[in-house]
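name: query_chain
kind: protein
chains: 1
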Amino acid sequence: MYGIRGLVAEKKAFGEEDPSQDLIDVFNVGAAIKAESYEICEYESLIDMAREMKHTKVAQLLNQNLKEEKAALKKMEAFSEKVKPNEMMNEEQEKKAAMSSKSSRSRRAA
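structure:
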């Protein structure tokens, strides 16, 4: 429960930074990966408890859910590689980066 609260707090804090839509997409995919990972850990714990209590059928059903969560995680990880922000820096940051790049090229040429 606290893990999910942390994700919600991260989302709220991130939103206050006024990010571009591209960065919001990247953030959301990352948050989905975190949520799936959290759910996988929870299912693994529940399966262990069910087995310890000799609830075989419950463990089997939980294991089916675990497989679904792992499949969802795999999809999110693949999707995260496709989601690339077009705008990683604001205009001022881009200018600084360009200036820095030009000055380092000048130093190399000298």
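note: The radius of gyration is 22 Å.
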